[in-house]
Amino acid sequence: MANASDIAAARALYYSLFSRLFAFSFKEDRFDGVSKMLGLISTASLDEESNAAAMRLSLNFSEPNPQNVVQEYDDIFHSPPRPLRNTFSYYDEGYEVGNACVEIKKLLLKTDIRRDEKKFKENEDSVGFVFTLMSEFIQRVIDGKSEYEEISAELFKDIINPCIDEFCDKLFMHDASEIYKDVAILLRNFIEFERIYYDVPRPINDSELSKKSSGLARSEMIRREKNRVRKLKSQGEI
After folding, report:
1. What percent of the chain has pLDDT over 70?
2. What is the pLDDT of residue 26?
3. CA dihedral in degrees (67, 72, 73, 76; nearest 10)?
4. Which sign, positive or negative, has the C-alpha torsion 207, 173, 193, 105?
5. Which of 27, 63, 85, 150 has most Cβ atoms within 10 angstroms of its Cβ?
6. In whole angstroms, what is the distance from residue 230 CA to residue 105 CA?
7. CA distance linking residue 73 with residue 58, whole number of Å
8. Report for 52-56, 215-219, 222-226: range of highest mean pLDDT
């Protein structure tokens, strides 16, 4: 059985991988190390689906600067008519540089970490930058700075958890997404592990509440859903 240190190292590895897969960069070596990371992940995957996704992805990252991945990234996140939004503010409020960006900046004030604008072209609430932060926070916990456990928990619970499912779904379903479908699978399954680690439930979105409501007021459905989650927690099922 893996000990706490091994689990933390594996979690930092996953976040570092997703940082490289989502952070925008002009550098030709932007995907350096991805193949090795995928190899490590495939040797101890979270489940069979994740293992299969990691194995397929590793084939696409066998070259140092895989142009097919670079092109697909651009087609998904930059090309009209429907580039995929990649900020937590957008999925939280429907527009860029919103409350999520403000909250992340406040969180950074508790640390000595700041966004390097030469390295990270996007704002603090971009998916790639947030995953970079999580990897760094976890590494600092490994290095004995226990205060970063609380900081990383706050970032996951308040910023990542409420919005990441919609991002994963849109990434998987995007017209240009082929290689990144496996990235979405890997990310979605890892997020479920993180919810167990931080003891937080998957949020229920408005469409799911609507389907379940059968005429009940939305506020009543939210109350019932909270009670359901509380009961599952008390039974140790989540």
Report:
1. 85
2. 74
3. 160
4. negative
5. 85
6. 31
7. 16
8. 52-56
Tokens of 39: 């190899």
**Burial call 125-145: b when 16+ CB within 10 Å, e when fewer:** bbbbbbbbbbbbbbbbbeeee
This prediction's pTM:
0.84
**Bridge partners, 126 (sequence order):** 87
> Which residues are paired to 172 by β-bridges?
none
**Among all chains, which residue has been given the structure tokens 């619970």?**
157
**SS3 letters for the chain?**
CCCHHHHHHHHHHHHHHHHHHHCCCCCCCCCCCHHHHHHHHHHCCCCHHHHHHHHHHHHHCCCCCCHHHHHHHHHHHCCCCCCCCCEHHHHHHCCCCCHHHHHHHHHHCCCCCCCCCCCCCCCCCEHHHHHHHHHHHHHHHHCCCCHHHHHHHHHHHHHHHHHHHHHHHHHHHCCCCCHHHHHHHHHHHHHHHHHHHHCCCCCCCHHHHHHHHCCCCHHHHHHHHHHHHHHHHHCCCC
Cα separation of the two ends of the chain = 20
- Residue whose entry in the numeric block shows the structure tokens 């952070």: 23
Question: Tokens at residue 16, please?
Answer: 């570092």
CA 186 to chain centre: 10
